[in-house]
Design a protein that fits this description.
The protein is mainly alpha-helical and 202 residues long. The chain has one domain. It is built from eight helices and no strands. Helix 6 runs parallel beside helix 8. The longest helix is centred in the middle third of the chain and has 35 residues. The chain is globular, with a radius of gyration of 18 Å.
Length: 202
């Protein structure tokens, strides 16, 4: 697994700085308009999308067929993508936390009342999107996969709003959303590692 992560890191090391720069620009502009807490959502989403690009690169390079003949096997190769996505998303949460604190200090305005909401969405959104987007990346083409990801973000946000309305409390709804997101991601990981190797992944 360590070797698979290293291979993927080599694939994204050129695009990762550009993605971080785009995230800083977008987050900085939104921080002025809304709150620096937006970094808590933007950072994990952007870094998670970087992980998804490795699936398309592997498809174009024929890595999926090669992985089927290697000792690691296709199931572990698929698991490596899930682990990479998870690590980058969690790294994005930490990066977003640092940027949110720095941005709030710079703007002299700490949005404490919205911090919990943004933090919960920042944890849940990439997990829910990854649970859908990673299998779609393996099974569908690049264009269709991007459509799936674009629809998954508003659906995850709508789920959070529905939980808040149902529970009538933001913090419990946020905890339920994080738990559901983690369960969905773990289930997607297990099912993908078991079922996708049976398909002809090109």
């Amino acid at each position: 697994m360590k070797g698979l992560l290293r291979k993927d890191f080599y694939l994204i090391r050129a695009t990762l700085p550009l993605a971080c720069l785009a995230m800083l620009v977008a987050g900085g502009c939104l921080s002025v308009l809304v709150s620096a807490n937006v970094f808590l959502v933007i950072a994990p989403v952007v870094l998670g999308l970087v992980a998804l690009t490795t699936v398309n690169i592997d498809r174009h390079d024929g890595w999926n067929r090669l992985a089927a003949t290697l000792p690691c096997g296709p199931a572990r190769a698929i698991g490596g993508k899930y682990l990479l996505y998870l690590l980058l998303s969690l790294g994005g949460v930490l990066l977003g936390l640092l940027l949110a604190v720095a941005g709030s200090a710079l703007l002299r305005g700490w949005g404490g009342e919205t911090f919990g909401i943004f933090f919960a969405i920042g944890l849940a959104l990439p997990l829910l999107s990854g649970a859908v987007g990673l299998p779609a990346a393996f099974l569908l083409g690049e264009d269709k996969n991007m459509l799936v990801m674009m629809f998954s973000y508003p659906l995850a946000s709508a789920l959070f709003v529905a939980l808040v309305l149902a529970i009538d409390a933001v913090l419990p709804a946020a905890l339920v959303l994080i738990g559901c997101s983690a369960a969905a991601y773990a289930t997607s990981w297990l099912l993908a590692a078991r079922l996708l190797p049976r398909r002809d992944l090109r």
